[in-house]
Amino acid sequence: xxxxxxxxAYFAGWAADRPARRAVAATVGALAEVAIELTDLLxxxxxxxxxxxxxxKPGEGDEQKEIDVLANNRIVDVLRGAPVAAxxxxxMDAPLxxxxxxxxxxxxxxxxxxxxxxxxxxxxTIFTVLPALEHNxxxxxxxxxxVNQLAGGFFVYGPQTVLTVTVGAGTQIFTLDxxxxxxxxxxxxxxxxLRTSEYAINDSNTRHWDDPIRxxxxxxxxxKEGPRGRDFNMRWTGSPVADIYRIVSRGGIYLYPGDKxxxxxDGRLRLIYEANPMAWVVxxxxxxxxxxxxxxxxxxxxxxxxxxxxxxxxxxxxxxAVRLHDGLQSRGERSxxxxxxxxxxx
Length: 346
Ligand SMILES: O=P(O)(O)OC[C@H]1O[C@](O)(COP(=O)(O)O)[C@@H](O)[C@@H]1O
Ligand SMILES: [Mg+2]
Ligand SMILES: [Mg+2]
Description:
Elements: H1 7-15, H2 19-43, H3 66-79, E1 84-89, E2 96-97, E3 104-112, E4 123-131, E5 151-157, E6 161-166, E7 171-177, E8 182-187, E9 198-200, H4 211-221, E10 233-234, H5 240-250, E11 253-256, H6 271-284, E12 288-290, E13 310-313, H7 315-325, H8 328-332
Parallel strand pairs: 1-3, 9-10, 9-11
Antiparallel strand pairs: 1-2, 3-4, 4-5, 5-6, 6-7, 7-8, 11-13, 12-13
Helix pairs in contact: 1-2, 2-3, 4-7
The structure holds 1,6-di-O-phosphono-beta-D-fructofuranose and magnesium ion (2 copies).
One magnesium ion (MG) binds next to strand 3.
């Protein structure tokens, strides 16, 4: 078997002699270095100390763990050596200026799913690379729509460490070869299956959902006997990176909608450094990512840590869930044409 392409070779080919692209390539390469370190650290589990211990910092429902801080600090350190003007992070209230004149901004969720660390479940690092603007230390520099991203992706630390990334030329998956310490291209231009019968949502919030989500999930639950006419399966890891990775690998739909809980009107995921990079990865793999009302990548951020509802994954399934939000599907699909013996089932 031919040796797969390395991350460095892939990015060198993509960047060629274009300085702007080379800067992006160097930045993703720097983040990959941290991912290799984190793979090693996380693999030690309890032997590496109390990584899952709370730091006691008050948050809005996302408890900060020691590993969150550690990962954040390593990312900041490493980005000091990359062409990055400023970095923003889930773990920092405000952006940190690194090198005012550098061409790029990076925003990260250093450790996604950190509540899963002591359960030995997959967790990850999410990142987005944006063009630098003026006044890069200001949060406003980061308030760019997802369509502006130059690179977006996430690492998953699980049985395998993988990098799922896009620079707008499809979505690529690199797998860490732990023997050589290099990421190798194992899945080029991945395609999310158009259809799926697997959904991912935190079902314990059912009582808080709005009607479109309630209808969507209830119809899935009713399986063959319901309006969808087929059985569905459900998966929820509590690590968005792991759920989105599964969906990129084999299809599915991920939903973290807004709900009626206090502070959850816009869901739970952070727009700039969680939802946007995952949404772009999904789109570049042929899937769809929506807030339920609009294309996720077109939402204009108004604050650095703002949340956004997210419905993402297999095209046909996401479009179905989105139609429920605009009311068309709720009228149409529930009509006799869509009943168990209906003509228009999909
Ligand atoms: O706990 P829930 O509501 O099922 O949500 C899943 C998790 O996804 C997250 O967005 C994971 O991200 P963090 O670990 O970076 O906070 C959490 O906020 C949340 O715990
Ligand atoms: Mg997160
Ligand atoms: Mg986090």
